[in-house]
Design a protein that fits this description.
heterotrimer, A mainly alpha, B mainly alpha, C mainly beta, A: mainly alpha, Cytochrome Bc1 Complex, Chain D, domain 2, three-stranded mixed beta sheet, two-stranded antiparallel sheet, 11 helices, 9 strands, 10% strand, globular, C: mainly beta, Immunoglobulin-like, four-stranded antiparallel beta sheet, three-stranded antiparallel beta sheet, 7 strands, 48% strand, elongated
Chain lengths: 271, 212, 106
Amino acid sequence: MPTTRGGVAAILLACLAVWVAAPALAQSDDPLGVGRKMLAEDNPGELWIEQGKTLFYQKRGPKNASLEQCDFGMGPGKLEGAAARLPRYFPDTDKVQDLESRLLTCMVQLQGFDRADIVKRAISPGGSNGSDVEALALYITFRSNGMTVNVSLSHQKEYDTYKAGEYLFYRRSGQTDFACVQCHGEANKRIRLQDLIHMTDKKGVQEVVSTWPAYRGAHFVVRTMQWRLYDCFWQMRLPELKYASDASIALITYLHYQGNGAVITVPGFKR
Amino acid sequence: MGKACLKWTMLGSLALIFAGCATYPDPATTRQMAEKMVSEDFTAPAPALLKRLVQDKSQQICSKIGDAKLTQEEAAEVVKLARASIQYPASGKLVGNWKIGDNLAHDGAGDRIQGGRLEKRKENGGLCQNCHALAPGEINVGNVGPSLTGYGLQRGNSEAIAKLTYERIYNAWAYSPCSNMPRLGATRHLTPEQVTHMVAYLLDPASPINKR
Amino acid sequence: MAEPMKIRATLQGDVADVRILMLHPMETGQRKDSKGQVVPMHFIQSVVVTHNGKIVLDTQWSQAVARNPFLGLRVKGAKAGDKIGVTWVDNKGDKRTDEVTVTPAS
């Protein structure tokens, strides 16, 4: 995936077309902040919410079934607030699952899709129309918009997974000697012009867990948390993180529990 | 695990009583579980590349969780291992060509793995611009590491400074154990020759980084 | 193509603040794909905005406009309940029209 070179400035040029008259915006000393606010108010990612909704209720796959019977933790078909409580333990699979791995489970079990096939196309190419998984993940999370992240640890596997995620967050390896904390452990840091979220800080990690899935400006498609973790390992010169793997679920569990109390606002807007 | 059923959580919240006595696992159990994930949940185009996930002794020591601190003994060991790792170029010349170093310092690409392929180019980028301010007036620079603007102006370019600079780039942990900076030479991300060019870029009075 | 647009039209006094999100590849015809083949031009050439059927904005676009473009405009003399219509046509002759009702400021 290409990395942008101009940060927010490039996104402003890329996404804004002609304004007939200057919009009335709050005066700000922070021009980048003004730009970010404009992008957040009119986010192309929103165009995938309808697509996700259609895909959710559509009968699809070899079993010709919709996802309406999928249990995201609050009972089959109950979406309101479900994403806010993920990841969590599921008795039917006997494991802790995040939103995307749970979506995978349902697409396989309810709709009869082939798991390897979904995984292969879960992350769409930049500039494409996006994948069904990306649209579905956005729609399902969108159904928890405005609600607070509320991950609880009660099952033993939830405790185990949380701690494994914490361990992985601090685990340094590879020729960069990086763990997540090397870039995300301090305030006001950035790589080139890309701000680095301070994830060992409450507000920072809350921002992380409440703004995915997000429209990735440079790719012109909606990206998910699974993609975000994958991309970090790519930059760290490490091998490829398997989609919806236990390692990915562990990191997501750690981050979401740390981010409890965040108000979900998707789609986010990322560079 | 053999823990008592009644227990305060590590966050100091109220004790919760469950029929199954769920609680945080001990560090050894966590380590075992997480390392199993590391060994199973990554792919690479070649088995050798998977070894990138295997931690060396220093990385294990430097993977402190949360507020855990590095002890003096651990710091000393990391420094000792780092010093021992330092290799100098065959020519013995520690200061190379600053123009090559300038390119390398701004190059953030190389050696990444994606879609089953390794991003192999003629050489790996130095990644410096990602984290450090370099020549004055450049905006597109990171701040994860300290600014290097005026590095040579401030220190001169004596043999001693050249050696120190070379060693810091080759293996930063020889001076700052468990620093956030990658041990670029020691991990073979950069060759000794490449490091000499970076040294020149930092020290040479003609280098843009030392522009007044 | 021709996916639905997302249009918001909010009244501020007697001015409707209209914000339009469109889904379109906006290919310039300069880009090459991973196999080195040029990706053909495919971009929106005209955008027309109407207020209760009357044209208030008639634009011609070029390849300079980015993928998944955003258009914002303010329409004077609007009232709650008025219709704002947006139509785009691209160089392949594909078109899309969507309409919304002006809503009062919340």
